[in-house]
UniProtKB/TrEMBL annotation:
Highest taxon in the source lineage: Bacteria
Domain F5/8 type C: 382-472
Signal peptide: none
Protein name (record): F5/8 type C domain-containing protein
Pfam families xrefs: F5_F8_type_C
Length: 500
């Protein structure tokens, strides 16, 4: 049943968000993206059905072209303006959806996570209240109610924007410091509506000082960022309803906003087991990394375009007669190396696609017998039915985010000005810019004594990098001189990496 308390949250309040201008917003927005909801009474299955109403309005919103990005802007409370924005963030679009749908009496809410468990930022989406299914999530302009939103991403905490102030928050805020990312009294913890959770109970390393408050944090790529507050229970602190498969750390904040770790990092597993991560500084190992960030759907979704590839040689720059030297493996999605017969010396080398596949290649590197990269002059393909001559140089421009797309007869050649003996060829396929790249500087850290400890800094010479003297069982972090995406991880004895 849709209770009186639900009405007080979803429909009756004079505003949807703190800071919203006091206007006649219901009348002003009622006709925006209305669709055929006024005809729902003609169908007994649809009348009084919020799923139909929300879907109908959302379908109208889909007709307004939108592009999503990580823009940081001031809130916009006019849906008419929001619908005309060519580019904005998820928070703005979700805010607009709430205003548009509540103006029509549709019980829609704004849910968000302050930060993904393995990402560098948070995210927002909408839910519609139903009596049969509870709250069904959807993405405005994109997916309809009932479509699970990013089901493969790990989440530490989910909140819902509400009208009634959070009493637990108010009690903390009147006594202690709250980090800026959580300074919102109009939020309700709804994590348990979405997934199994765990109440995390840890022993305090020492008593909190006056004015300090406990928070639980995840790593956002640069720092430990808080996602929820804790409750003191004697010599323990409890963090309720936390997401699983996530690496956490407990922090205390003093009155000046300084964060102080009050626990070791720990993993909350899918089986609801808490495992603290402690480095063994008496045992060391060597690890190899091919990436600095987990491989996500943005790369996996183009897997049919980043397979295969052939390396050929010729006696002339026209490649009238060629010899296949190597075929790149089909199953390697990001980067790799092929070793060649050292007895073959050729001046002209080229990269082309396999017969049946498209192969987008970001970078290719040729190594001599001394394991040094050698450069060749680009030879552009001119006989392809696709004009790829303008982007041929992308394959050797030092930028992973540009690529040469080989398909059919497309190719790009290299003139080394003399016959050369190539010992191996390394490559980076079209990707997200997070493959290990020759020439870039990488630093590896491990967590110990409440801080990151530097293991070593190296400049990569290949599409992988190795670090020696890495403490066993440590929580590690890789940072690069280029790019913003970087994650923490653990590495087992078989060099298998789990990113967090």
């Amino acid at each position: 049943m849709f209770s009186t308390a639900d009405s007080h949250e979803y429909l009756l309040p004079y505003k949807c968000f703190e800071g919203q201008p006091l206007t006649e917003w219901r009348n002003a927005y009622y006709d925006i993206c209305k669709g055929d909801i006024d005809l729902a009474y003609l169908c007994d299955e649809y009348k009084r059905n919020p799923i139909f109403a929300a879907t109908e309005v959302n379908n109208q919103m889909k007709n307004t072209p939108q592009s999503f990005g990580l823009l940081k802007t001031l809130p916009i409370y006019d849906p008419d303006i929001i619908l005309k924005l060519p580019f904005s963030n998820c928070a703005t679009y979700c805010l607009g959806a709430v205003l548009i749908m509540r103006s029509k009496g549709i019980p829609v809410a704004y849910d968000f996570t302050p930060n993904w468990s393995t990402g560098n930022n948070g995210h927002s989406w909408n839910t519609v209240y139903t009596t049969r299914f509870g709250n069904l999530e959807f993405a405005p302009h994109t997916t309809d109610p009932g479509t699970v939103h990013y089901p493969y991403l790990k989440v530490p905490k989910i909140f819902r924007n509400v009208y009634k102030p959070n009493e637990e928050y108010l009690k903390i805020a009147t006594e202690k410091y709250i980090p800026p990312k959580l300074r919102n009294m109009f939020i309700q913890d709804v994590t348990a509506e979405y997934m199994p959770t765990i109440d995390i109970r840890i022993s305090l390393q020492e008593s909190l000082k006056s004015g300090q408050s406990p928070f639980i944090a995840i790593y956002d790529g640069n720092n430990w960022t808080p996602v929820y507050w804790g409750k003191i229970a004697g010599s323990h602190v409890v963090f309720e309803r936390m997401g699983l498969n996530t690496c956490y750390i407990a922090l205390a904040y003093d009155s000046n906003g300084n964060a102080i770790p009050i626990s070791k990092p720990f993993l909350a597993s899918a089986s609801k087991h808490i495992q603290f991560i402690e480095p063994d500084t008496s045992a060391f190992r060597t690890i190899r990394l091919n990436r600095k960030y987990p491989l996500g759907d943005n790369v996996f979704s183009i897997r049919k375009k980043i397979t295969g590839g052939i390396i050929e040689t010729s006696e002339n720059r026209e490649f009238d007669h060629t010899k296949k030297i190597a075929e790149l493996p089909q199953g390697n999605l990001t980067n790799g190396t092929v070793f060649l017969d050292k007895n073959a010396e050729y001046r002209y080398w080229r990269f082309t696609s396999s017969d049946t596949s498209q192969c987008d290649m970001a970078e290719i590197y040729f190594y001599d017998e001394h394991d040094s990269i050698i450069q060749g002059n680009i030879i552009k393909c001119t006989n392809s039915i696709f004009d790829k001559s303008n982007n041929a140089a992308n394959i050797a421009d030092g930028d992973q985010l540009t690529n040469f797309s080989a398909k059919g007869e497309d190719w790009v050649g290299f003139d080394f000005c003399r016959p050369v003996n190539i010992s191996k060829i390394s490559y980076i396929r079209r990707c997200d810019g997070n493959s290990i790249q020759p020439g870039l500087e990488y630093s590896l850290y491990y967590w110990d004594n409440n801080n990151w400890q530097l293991i070593n800094t190296k400049i990569a010479n290949d599409v992988f990098i190795e670090f020696e003297n890495v403490p066993q069982k440590a929580l590690l972090a890789i940072k690069c001189s280029q790019g913003k995406q970087q994650r923490i991880f653990v590495c087992d004895e078989d060099n298998k990496i789990d990113w967090y």
